Amino acid sequence: MPAPSAPEPGEHVVYVPALTAAKALLSNAMIEAGWRKADLARALDCHAPQVERLLDVNHHSKLDQIERALAALGRRLVVDVQRAA
């Protein structure tokens, strides 16, 4: 998922659920690190289907699992709250 940009006049902003955004950020971190799903599974000492579910936006993963995966990549998740438009 690309990083968001400021909307141009006439464009609509699309908001994604926090869990979906966290999964996209995990996927982006894997790509940046050159990691495959098998690499993450090895780092987390889990099986490939568990990593598949962790990255599946239709599967309700626990946020602590995503944080653990990001930590394996040397990253951490940062949450922010903003006023609604």
Describe this structure in words.
GO terms for molecular function: DNA binding. This is Helix-turn-helix protein. InterPro entries: Lambda_DNA-bd_dom_sf (IPR010982). This protein is mainly α and 85 residues long. The protein has a domain of 55 residues. The protein is built from 4 helices and no strands.
What order do the helices and strands follow?
A: HHHH
Count of individual beta strands: 0
Note the total helix count: 4
- Average residue pLDDT: 93
Low-confidence stretches: none
DSSP strand content: under 5%
Which shape, going by the Cα principal axes?
A: elongated
Distance N terminus to C terminus? 23 Å
Would you tell me the structural class of the helices and strands?
mainly alpha
Radius of gyration over all CA atoms, rounded: 14 Å
What is the helical fraction, as a range of percent? 40-55%
Largest sheet: none
Q: Which oligomerization state do the chains in this entry correspond to?
A: single chain
Brief summary:
The protein is mostly helical. 49% of the residues lie in helices and 0% in strands. Helix 1 (18-33) packs parallel to helix 4 (63-72).
